[in-house]
Structures are given as C-alpha cells and as structure tokens.
Amino acid sequence: MVSVKDYAQDSHTITWCPGCGDFSILASLKKALVDAKLEPHNVVIASGIGCSGKLPHFIRAYGFESLHGRAVAAASGIKLANHELNVIAVGGDGDGYGIGTNHFVHACRRNYDMAYVVHNNQIYGLTTGQTSPTSEQGFKTKSTPEGVLEVPVNPIALAITMGATYVARGFSGDLVHLAKLIQGGIEHKGFALIDVMQPCVVWNRVNTFEYFRKKTYKLEDEGYEPFDKLKAYERAWEWKERIPLGVFYKADAPTYENGLPQLQSGPLVKKPIENIDIENLLSKYE
Length: 286
Ligand SMILES: Cc1ncc(C[n+]2csc(CCOP(=O)(O)OP(=O)(O)O)c2C)c(N)n1
Ligand SMILES: [Mg+2]
Known about the structure:
β7 (216-218), α8 and β8 form a beta-alpha-beta unit. The chain is an alpha/beta fold. The radius of gyration is 19 Å and the shape is globular. Strands 2-1-3-4-6-5-8-7 form an 8-stranded mixed sheet, sandwiched between helices. The chain has one domain (4-261): Rossmann fold (3-Layer(aba) Sandwich). 45% of the residues are buried. It has helices at 22-35, 71-81, 93-99, 101-110, 155-162, 175-187, 209-215, 229-236, 256-259, 278-283, and strands spanning 43-47, 62-65, 86-92, 114-120, 166-171, 191-197, 216-218, 243-250. Thiamine diphosphate binds next to β3 and α3.
C-alpha cells in the first residue's frame, strides 16, 4: 500500500515563503497520487521555471525541471517516450499562460493523457512581483505602476475551447477539495487542466486567501454537471462576484497516444534499437 510517506522528499529544504499557497498544492498532489494508488516509480512530474517550478524537488517521484514555459512540452515528450508512465506537468500562470501558452493550447487539442496543475497566483512570484497573464485589469505591480491594461487570460475558457477533456479549478485554501480535483485529473484519460488559485502572500495583496474564501463556491454544491460544453464555457466566465471551483467540463475522447500507430505495440523506450542501421540513416543527411 502506497502512503504519503513514500512521496516524502527529505533531501531538499522547501524554499517557498511561509504561508505560500504552493505548500497545499504539494500536499494535495501527494494525497491525490496516494488516493489514485500510484507508486512513485511510475510517476514523473515535469515543471517549468518559477516558485511553482520547484515543486518536483520537493516530492519523491521522477522529476524534470525544464525551461520557463516548457513544463507541458517536457511532459509531452516524456509521455510519448513512455506512455506507461503517469505524467504530470506543473508550473505557474506566467509559465503556462504566458511564455508557454502555445504548448498548453496544443496539448489541449492533442488530448495527451496527462494532468497539468497550474499554480495560478496571478503574478510572477519568483522574479518578485511583475504582472502575469492572469493579473486582473487595473492591478498595479512594479511592471505596471499605472495598472494592467490587458484583459486577463481565462485558462478555464481557453482549455474548454481548445479541446481539453477535463477542466477544473481548485483553491489552495481547500486542500481536501483540491486533492480530489487533482486525483480526478490524474485518473482521467486525456488532457486534464487543474487551475489552482494559489495566493502569493508576498507579491499579490489583492487576490488573497481571504479574497478567495469570500468569493468561491463549489459547482457540485449547486447540482452542476460537467458534461455540457456550452454550459461549461458559460460558467468559465463567472468571476467578479462569485468564483466557481470544481470540475467545469469532462468528456471522453481519444488520446493522442491512442492514435499514434508507433505506440500501439508498446512504449518507445521498450523498442529494441540494436538493429537500427544508423550509418544508413545518417547518410541521408549528408
Ligand atoms: C526564457 C525565460 N524568460 C524569463 C525568465 C525569468 N523568469 C523566471 S520565473 C518567471 C516568471 C514566474 O512566474 P510564474 O510562471 O507565474 O511562476 P511563479 O513564480 O509565480 O510560481 C520569469 C519571467 C526565465 N527564467 N526564462
Ligand atoms: Mg505566478
């Protein structure tokens, strides 16, 4: 029986700020992996760069801290090389909805079988508080002293539109609920976005734990069912007064891995390579 202790990583000191919403995402992810009965040696967590990007250091599973914006790209490569692994991408709002948007969008439409957990603090945390793609209009930071001009990226609406088949929003102030959403995403066959409202206690003094405690409600408490794409899209735009948490959308659809003929006889990493004539292959590129 796998337990949370199996995922405990003692070799690294956690460097997140005291009170950071990232702690409960880490705890929720561990709980989700245990509840999904997954063993650490079958789990890979790929991240980008940011406070959020450090997460793979703090959990005892395979980890890959890639480049800024490349969490999903790295995760996709790992999944295609060995689709028997449970692959999870993690990163920040700047990482996934700014510099890495294209990887996110194309992963949604390919429907890779993986979960993507975004630590959405609506700010660039690691680089000390610049505006991110999910910062609200008018929000003042050192990079936008007069306030943000652009309309924020709506990750839930974007994921639904681009073909993700499990789209959820969690709150790092509700660990048990978040763990359930992450577990649902891990167990789902297809691309699962779990966007997590994760207050940055140092650089974002607007979207705080208090802010989300006041405004959030759970979709399931209102009898909402996540199987109608247009209804999900409509809910995705609810924000100012009330902020929905839970699964917005869930659908069954073929995964990219299922469609690739090269993967049907087993993972690429298990294919014999000793009989490949590399000289012949190279000569084609001379
Ligand atoms: C190509 C590149 N551009 C910029 C940076 C600098 N940089 C590092 S983290 C970061 C933003 C982090 O914000 P976010 O993704 O929201 O993560 P958080 O720290 O808030 O968890 C930036 C701009 C970088 N490392 N690489
Ligand atoms: Mg951020």
